[in-house]
Specification:
alpha/beta, Urease, subunit C, domain 1, TIM Barrel, 3 domains, eight-stranded parallel β-sheet, six-stranded mixed β-sheet, 28 strands, globular, binds zinc ion
Length: 682
Amino acid sequence: MVGRQPNFLFGVLIVLTSTSSLLSTAQEILYNAIVYTVDERFPEADSIAIDEAGFIVGVGAFANLSDRFPTYQLTDLRGQLVLPGFQDAHLHAVEAGINSQLCYVGSEVTGEDSSVIEDIPLYFDEPDCADFGLFGGQGWVMGAGVDLAAIMEELKANETARYPITVLDESFPDTPVVILDQYGHGALANTAAMVAVGYDNGVDPRGGQILKDANGTLLGIVTENAQQKLREAAFPPTDDNKELAYKSLLSALDTLKKNGVTTVSDAGGFWHQAQTESWERAEEEGYLTVRASNSLYVYPDEGLGTQLPSLIQRFSNDPDKLVRFNQAKVYVDGILSLATARLYEEYEFDPFQEYRTPLSSSDAEWTGFEYFGDNVTLNFMSQSLANAGFQLHYHVTGDAAAGLALSAIKSVQSNPEIEPHRLTHCYLIAEKDRPLFAELGVVADFQLAPSSVSEEYQQSMQDFLGNDRADTLLPAVEMYEAGATVTLSSDWDADELSPLLKMQTVLSRPTGRSFASLEEVIPMLTLNPAKLLQHDDKTGSITIGKYADLAVIDKDIFNLPVNEIATAEITRTYLQGKLIYNVKGGVGSPTTGLSSNGGSTTATITEGEAEVDMEEVEVEETDTEIDTGLNENVTVGKTDPTSGATTAETAASSSTQSTVSGANRRWASCFSILSFSIWLTL
Ligand SMILES: [Zn+2]
């Protein structure tokens, strides 16, 4: 996760569609459509025939299909566009819901004399925060959304500014408080919280940093993995919290189907917090409306010897199930906005410079941060995880981080069963590393949100990186031209979810190079992620023999001006032939043919009181003449994932050796082996 926008998913009545009977659906022909198949052999058609098991059995002209399948019920799509269901290879479904429940603590400047730091406690006076600021009876107060860069700016600009820890202690002298940042890479904490997790001595935990001044006084700011311990202490996996996480996921699923998303990869995977249980429960109870090939987080502060058995225990890869946990999420570095992205060359500007513990005593130039400290550890860990059957999912944002991850993949024995591996975020990729993606078969996964390709963001990055490097941010087109398999994911809820908005954005970037056509881009949201998630034998294109995972769009986006693509709307979403979403008034009810009762059920879940920024939308099937075995009479809370963009991004790390001189290289090598053996034995 590299950014976060405030959003509010809860507070509405949600009635969910059960998928407990995926193998039972209507035999159906969708006709009078513009079908864009993403199958080069038959790129376009007007009709799709779907059998009772949800497989596509015909794609082509209506006259032909109706002859071949005379008993199938017919659904008139009235000229709408049909694409393969969207596949989002990197998002945070469980966290999206949980974050929305926390007290929102922004960093907006409200007036000339206002102070970002001094205003923090005021957010907790808001009625919403008073309702759910305290969690699970654990006695912690949690917030989310704070902008650490804005806080650092104030500390630098105003020498009388107080540290966040001082301000928080004044309002919360005894109650531990943690406020997660908007990027998912840092947090604020008061003294009680620091004491509770043992951070009050200021010693950096592995994979994280506790910021302090030259006197050793804590600022109340932690970065990267240091936030995990605080998060776990504040939100332990109690029964109540697990229930909240589950409802968070159900709420997220509701948003996904409204966006035509039928496959995801959840990149959170914080199994210490029992996030795996939410997914498995959703499938068991029949409410899972996406295929999910998810990741398990590899904790940098927990030795491999300790956590590998737990990771293996949670590994799952059953092709007959919707949910799998078959990827390992490995953070190589942090993010550019916190200057924790690992770079080949030093930062031009590091807002935290005087408050960090350098990575080594010889580290005069700040080139960013590495979660695992050295490439020996990273390589060994990658090999161990791959040997255990995990597909590798690296978080990289700086160019050196990308180089490190590529080296680690190179060190892993090739195994087609678990490939391709991938690098996600990829804000900077050095020229020399670009061809390696194609050579090693590594997928380059980008999130090109409007906020991350904006001129404003690029200007802010010029401060950190200088103009030359800032000009090369997010080289998705360049990687495509270099022969890499490129996927476009969302990083929701850090960034916007909407695949239609993503298409519009990558075709009209205000900074960097734009893709040339929808024909180039659509596979990056469908077939390419299907390949990445090892589903392309069954999904990713509208092809006979694959599942009918489909997104129906009200406008033909091929004939819209680029800047209007995001005005199109998803009207229907099918998962394995089942209609899991149908916007009210949407066209296309079955008119003739056989009926089939799929035995679906409904559930009503009433969420908490926080009715914030919500709009209720009625969603229902328009025709019940034929029972398709689906529940369409649903009321869902509408969130707008396309609004309120916040800046976000990250950068990467890479070969440590390439950044140190000869003497330092030997020292770094000793350090690597030492820290590697410590980590193994933890
Ligand atoms: Zn992410």
